[in-house]
Every structure is written in structure tokens, then in C-alpha cells.
Amino acid sequence: MDYKELCCKIIDSHDGLVYVTDMETNEVIFANKKLLQVIGKNKAEVFGKPCYQALQDKECPCEFCTNSILSENKYYDWEIFREDMQRYFVLHDKLLILGDRKFRVEVGTDITDQVLEKREIKNKLNMEKTLIKCIDTLNHENDVNKAINELLKIVGETYDGDRAYIFERCEADNTVSNTYEWCKKEIVQQLDSL
Predict the structure, then answer these.
(1) Share above pLDDT 90 across residues of the chain, in percent, rounded to a whole number
(2) What is the pTM for the complete model shown?
């Protein structure tokens, strides 16, 4: 096994996404197995094709292409959301010069799980802050009607709603009535008609 073959095997065994393009032609000259698996293509569909076509299914270079900002001295790190895959990736790009040719080396990692976990934690924190704000409002306001209206405002604004209601059920005549309502300024209240 020669050095080139050994390098390819090592990169193919990497769990991240790796590819190399010729920066003059955008031609993909290498893509590891993991990348091919993630994009659902084989070598024949990728190798020798422009990266924007083979990897992004575009007809012209990507508007987010990093070729013009790459250097040999350090990686350029960035993130992208692939709409077609519904996945988030962090990418590390670097300029590689061999002889008189320039290549872009890109190493990517799927960070979708981390992004979604972070979003879920942020949502839970916002919900807890809202709950504390509601409890504090109910605890410090002596006027029950004012407290309930403020609570509805907090809930409506937190969830970017147009309005928030409280309906009360009357067991005696089996009806439901809108007893409290908060609305954004430009929204017409429905309290008296519901």
C-alpha cells in the first residue's frame, strides 16, 4: 500500500465529511465515504464534477463559497443549514497549495443534534422565566383582575400571539363565556361577543 492509498483510507475512515476541490475549476477531486453516504451519491456522481453541482445540486457557484477568503495558515470555520437535508453542519475550510494548483479542503461535522438540543434548552429556559414572571405577577398584584390581565399579556407576548383568552364554564346553564382577554394594540377585542 502506497502513501496516497493509505491517506485515502485514513480519511475514508473519518466520521466527518471531507472533500477536496480544485479552486480554479471547482472540480471535486476527492470525497470521503461518509460525505457520499450523507448526500446519497456515489463517486461517479461527484468526482470530476463542479462542487456546487455535485454537492449542492446547483447550476452555478454557491453564493456562500469560501474560496476567496481561504488561507494556508488557518482554517475558516462556519456553519450552514442544508434545507434539503434539514441538517446543520459546522465546516472547516482551508487552502492547500500543491505545486502551482490551489485546492479547497473542507471538513464538516453534522451538528444537528447539538443545535436542536441547544434550542430545546433555550425554549425550556424561556418557559421557566415566563412561568416565574407569571407567578411573580400573581403574587404581587392585589387586584385579581389586573393580575389575570397582566398574566394573559405575559403569555401572549411570550408566544407572539395576537390575543390570549380565559374562558369560564358555567355549569348551571352549560355555557362558556370569555371572561378575560388580552390583545395586541392593533387587534380588536372579542371579549363582549364571545
Answers:
(1) 58
(2) 0.68
